[in-house]
Amino acid sequence: xxxxxAITTALLVGGAAATMTMQQPVGAxxxxxxxxxxxxxxxxxxxxxxxxxxxxKLQPAVVNISTTQRVAVQTNPFAGTPFGNLFGDQGPGxxxxxxxxxxxxxxxxxxxxxxxxNNHVISGGRNGAxxxxxxVTLPDRTExxxxxIGRDVVSDLAVLKIDASNLPFVKFGDSxxxxxxxxxxxxxxxxxxxxxxxxxxxSALHRxxxxxxxxxxxxxxxxxxxxxxxGGPMFDLNGNVIGINTAIFSPSGGNVGIGFAIPAEQxxxxxxxxxxxxxxxxxxxxxxxxxxxAEIAEAMGLPKHRGELIAGVEPNEAAARAGIRRGDVVTKVxxxxxxxxxxxxxLVSNTPVGARIPIELIRDGKTMSVTLTVGERPPEEQLAAxxxxxxxxxxxxxxxxxxxxxAQASLGVAVQPLTPAIARSIGVxxxxxxxxxxxxDPSSDAATKTLKRGDVILSINRRPALTAQDVATAVRExxxxxxxxxLLLVQRGAGRPQYxxxxxxxx
Length: 507
Description:
By secondary structure, the protein is α+β, with helices and mostly antiparallel strands. The protein contains eleven helices and 28 strands. The radius of gyration is 27 Å and the shape is elongated.
């Protein structure tokens, strides 16, 4: 299920700043990226001879953001061992509190000192770290203590305020007009080096990293972005802020030409809400979601890259009240297609709370539609607590008999009915019904999908699996229908069930 990044991304310890059009009195200071402030004529659509004029106008509005944090550090070399209390609670080697710092970027969005950055830039970087102060440093090295006006964890945005006036500032542009191949300029503070300008092109739009949620929909760029660029602005050649540099894909932690920016179209409404002291409200169905993989699509007889699979439904939430069930595949939300680039989470989260909308779905091969009233997404802390996953059963090696049975089975697993005693031993709730895996063929697709001894198969091809014969019958029917995969609903320990598409072994 979509609860973690599907690719390795490194949050750029920094900030993301957005800008907004502010009402200014006649004769007041104008934004650094106003057309007449950059040059007498707009730049050509192609590559300019130089970015110097653009950089000179925009750099004054980009700032360095640093935090001072207090973090508890365990210095006892015997911590976690039977000798952990050797020195006593107050003796040497205990936990001590130390100062830590973080660096990032941001940008000024109003002449009176409102600044946008990433939430992760001004949050504690380690478990237990407490941010004591936030410092904003302007390009002329003037420092200000900043006040946190508002933050939004889901979008990874935060708004700060410094006590200053007549500041240079920039505005948001319209990122909906951005095209792949457009030139962009990124400004930030990589590795704390100070104002740095890089250029590149837009590599992709609506990039889904697998993170999930309402904001997993980035602008991808090859402009050099590194640690410390986070929160810095991405400009188009007209000097408009079209993105907020937020994350990178990097095996090494440095720039490899794949960076991600939050589009201005998503950031701007969040920033406006935070500036007013408001709370960002998002739509919510109350479901757990899985991507429809090639194996799942084949097992269910569905086309690839269409819709998303409902892996679970929360009681008394919008989806449950509308009759949506586990195993349904949602294909449209309010007339908009659910695709890898336009996910179910994105569509629902950006639907007004209380709106009544149609949902199109596929159930047992048939297309149907339900109408529901969109609920409100609970706080992230509440969601995180409800999604706790039990590790379940981490057993010793399979016994030889179960391994032989698994190797002989087309599914690549050996199973037996789940009894109350087995359920207790593997940490499965007492009301769970299914078959427990007793062995896995290491050469099978089931092993590739990380199925293991102690996992419980609740259903196969959306029919209950209570005996080994139920599993064998479903496999036989799939083979007769010329399907090379089956759909399993699997539970591990006390965690939430998850659908897994498993390829059958060829005979």
